[in-house]
Amino acid sequence: MNRLRQFCLTALMCTAMLAHADGIVRWLEMQHEFGTIHEEDGKVSCTMRLVNDGDSELIITQVRTSCGCTAAGYDKAPIAPGDTARITITYDPVARPGEFSKDVFVYTNGTPRRSGVSIHGVVIAQPETLSEFYPVAVGAMRMTGASVPLGELTKGRKRSSYLTVVNTSTTDTLLVSVTGENAHLKAAAAPDTLPPGKVGAVTVMFDTRQSQLWGLNIDTLTIITEPLHPSPTAVSGTAHVHVMAQVLDDYSQLTDQQRRDAPAIKVSTDKLMFARDALSATMTVTNTGKKPLELRRMWTAEPGVSISCDKTRLKHGKQATITITIDPTQVSRPLLNGHMTIVSNDPSQQSLTVRLVGEI
């Protein structure tokens, strides 16, 4: 029993000695703030130091960065107890405008096995980069685009998206506001106060439950930027952003029998021709299905073209007449080459198009 006790005591002492004999990592700096840097000035570097507070040599086994834009070099020689090693971190700002925060992980044979440091800053982009990545100017702010395509949305769903923005000013903080919201479209700037060089976003959320239009919805938001502190050099701006969503029904869960019983739309033509002396034309729509057909929307983006229909709900075998009329005083082009869209509750083709062609 005494031998067992002595063995356990010896093992504990050896473990304690081994633990004590490890190299111990202590960082003198754990983060570096570069502040504002300019893209055209190229790469920037900093040095961070670690001290071996242990009783045996410390070896850095590897260094990893969180991004390919960041590189790190380090002392590969063993670090004696009490000595200091240096990690050199380099950040490449080319084509990376805006705020950045990057981590560097250092692995050793000591305690801890892994530790981390970080770098931070803001990149002021050169004009060429801004034009490429942020082509839309709104005063001193630039955006990645002037449209937000949300794609096809089934009724009852929501979808969100955003545009990235950057404050190109080196001195002015900008107030960013968004107008043009409605029942189905919500939008906001995040943040709404954008410091010099900082990157933000204009977020949008489309709710089909509140939308009144079937088919393509096009809404326009107005983005306004103003300097927080007006000055002779401060620049304000306004831009319009188009948000587009195609709202359709979800028929994915219909059974085979329900599809056989569904309404079915048939149009008398897929192209209407117009001439200078015949600026009005008609076409018919027939329900060849079993259940009632609903003509939910008929529209065109062509200026000066109006559409009317004598019925919007058709029982099996019934027809509706659609009349398309052109007002030549509202048409600026001598040739018409557009289309009309018909949205219905036909599960097989909820949205179909009819070409509108002619000489005005």
Oligomer: single chain
The percent range for helix content is: under 10%
Number of beta-strand segments:
27
SSE ordering: HEEEEEEEEHEEEEEEEEEEHEEEEEEEEE
Number of domains: 3
CATH architecture of the largest domain: Sandwich
Shape: elongated
Q: Considering the protein shown, what is the CATH homologous superfamily of the largest domain?
A: Immunoglobulins
Major beta sheet, strand line-up:
9-10-12-16-14
Arithmetic mean pLDDT: 91
Q: What fold name goes in the CATH topology slot of the largest domain?
A: Immunoglobulin-like
Question: Which ranges are low-confidence, i.e. pLDDT below 50, for 5 or more consecutive residues?
Answer: 8-20
Head-to-tail CA distance between termini = 111 Å
Number of helices: 3
Class of secondary structure makeup: mainly beta
Could you tell me the radius of gyration in angstroms?
A: 33 Å
Explain what the structure shows.
With 360 residues, the chain is mostly beta strands. It folds into three domains: 18-123, Immunoglobulin-like (Sandwich); 134-248, Immunoglobulins (Immunoglobulin-like); 256-359, Immunoglobulin-like, CATH 2.60.40.10. It is built from three helices and 27 strands. A five-stranded antiparallel beta sheet has the order 9-10-12-16-14, covered by helices on one side. Strand 26 (335-344) and strand 27 form a beta hairpin. It is elongated and about 95 Å long.
List the helices and strands and how they pair.
Elements: H1 2-21, E1 25-27, E2 31-38, E3 44-52, E4 60-65, E5 70-74, E6 84-91, E7 98-108, E8 114-124, H2 127-133, E9 136-138, E10 141-143, E11 147-154, E12 158-167, E13 174-179, E14 185-190, E15 193-194, E16 199-207, E17 215-227, E18 237-248, H3 256-261, E19 265-267, E20 271-274, E21 280-287, E22 293-299, E23 305-309, E24 313-314, E25 319-326, E26 335-344, E27 351-359
Parallel strand pairs: 2-8, 11-18, 20-27
Antiparallel strand pairs: 1-3, 3-6, 4-7, 5-6, 7-8, 9-10, 10-12, 12-16, 13-15, 13-17, 14-16, 17-18, 19-21, 21-25, 22-24, 22-26, 23-25, 26-27
